[in-house]
Design a protein that fits this description.
single chain, 144 residues, alpha+beta, Jelly Rolls, 5-stranded antiparallel β-sheet, 3 helices, elongated
Length: 144
């Protein structure tokens, strides 16, 4: 069995954002030479996510609004005033940790005939919830 490891690096200038990374993952699959196997794509930071969904702007906006309702951003640390206890550490990113938990850490995609074996409309995305600094995504492909 062969394996291929690569890192994709991102620095999102805003606090939050979604980036379609499908083409970058496909490029790593091509570089691997693997025709049959599995591809793991993993966010290596606890305030970022990797997920699969449709690349449609309205859906991305819906995610943004939904996630903000689930875990609203709060610079404060007083839970009685809507703040997060985690923010007492001097951070302001408790919401980013919660959003990552909802959106997930990684995806695994089957590799068939040298291609990512997706369903209709599926694409791979990097989700950033505490941006403005450099973060990485691991791509690990195994197979023959």
């Amino acid at each position: 069995m062969k394996s291929h490891r690569a890192e994709l690096w991102f620095e999102i200038p805003a606090r939050r954002g979604f980036v379609n990374i499908t083409r970058a993952v496909e490029a790593e699959l091509a570089a691997s030479g693997i025709r049959e196997g599995l591809c793991l794509v993993n966010a290596m930071h606890i305030t970022a996510s990797v997920f699969i969904n449709d690349d449609e702007r309205g859906l991305h906006d819906d995610y943004e609004r939904w996630l903000e309702r689930l875990a609203p951003f709060s610079e404060g640390s007083d839970p009685a005033r809507g703040g997060y206890r985690h923010n007492r550490t001097g951070e302001d990113n408790a919401d980013a940790h919660l959003k990552r938990q909802v959106m997930g850490r990684e995806v695994v995609v089957a590799v068939t005939g040298g291609r990512l074996d997706f369903g209709p409309w599926e694409q791979i995305f990097y989700g950033e919830f505490d941006g403005r600094r450099r973060k990485r995504v691991l791509v690990k492909i195994i197979g023959e």
